[in-house]
Model the fold of this input.
Amino acid sequence: MRALLLLAALLLSAPAARADNQDWTQVARGRYLAVVGDCVACHKATEGVAASDYAGGRPIETPFGMINAANITPDVETGIGRWTPDDFAQAMREGRRPDGAHLYPAFPYPWYTRMSRQDMDAIFAFLRTIPPVRHAVNRNTLPFPFRIRAAMIGWNMLFFTPGELRPDPAKSEEWNRGAYLVEGPGHCGVCHTPMNALGGSRSSEAFAGQSLQGWIAPNIGGNEALGVGAWGVDDVVQYLRTGATAWTRASGPMAEVVEYSTSGMTEADLRAIAVYLKDRPPRGPAPPAPLAADAPRMRAGEALYIDNCAACHRRDGAGVAGMIPSLKDNQITVQPGVETLARVVLTGVRSAATDLEPTAPGMPSFGWRLDDQQVADLLSYVRNAWGNAAPEVDVSLVRQQRERLTRGP
Done:
């Protein structure tokens, strides 16, 4: 009898499960938060694996080597089927697996740590509802010495500040919601904030943009020339919802963000993100003086533009509203780095496809037709015509990009 009373007391005093895959309100919230966090972009299964958005294996390029994204389906052998809500929260908050091994910040726990425990539990509850997929992923692909996970202890001491993001009482509810989405589950700073030599984010340059994986993750702060400072809130919302505005279209990694994540977010959350980003400090270099119109490189670039680009982007660089991006008054055109521009010219590109913008127009490759010097001259012209102003393009940068694209990641 005493044993039964003790067992009853223990059961009554035990806390309720934080993540309940039968609580469909919590599961639905977790599914939405997984969309906000763009989990599919990294954890989508590689080809040849049973169809799953979360079975992992996709290689993620980092400055230190390639890392394969983990299987986060509830498979008990190769996924997270044995994890508890506390295990999941530990990974999100501290960057550590249940066995204590440190995760690399390619899994953006320095941002996820700012989320509420309630939201972490909701995501875990959702992940428990998806079909388990048996797919073993090699998680130790970094070269020596970067594969030594214990090194993350020192990295965390230098660059990781755990803790939930707290609202700023001096700001509006909408601003604070945007701050939470951008700084937490959306982890926008992973790509758009420059990194130092050790892979830590330079907080003093938050959202000022950087070169990443052979693309430019552009400035998305309040800078009017380089960021979204000159955009209206409605412009930012439209871009995130559809992947397109009247003058630009999302491509490359940002196309995936739009397709997998922001196009599935609510209007209110997109507006909150826009309000927060537009209020960020206008970081980034001041625009230089444009190249003189009669400079030899401008003359050469203009001739190349007329022959190869003007038919679509128009002689005045204005493009076709809603279809072909404008090359003037386009922040991508004048970013300090030219990786995206060179890549688009060399290999072509296809823009994001969403329910509201299903066409996904593409641009053909000109790498077969133009040599490195011609590409450099063409881009120097585009970056300094029609009121644009940006550093001229060195031919060595185009050569490096062509070599990178030829050999692959």
Remarks:
- The first strand starts at residue 59 and ends at 62.
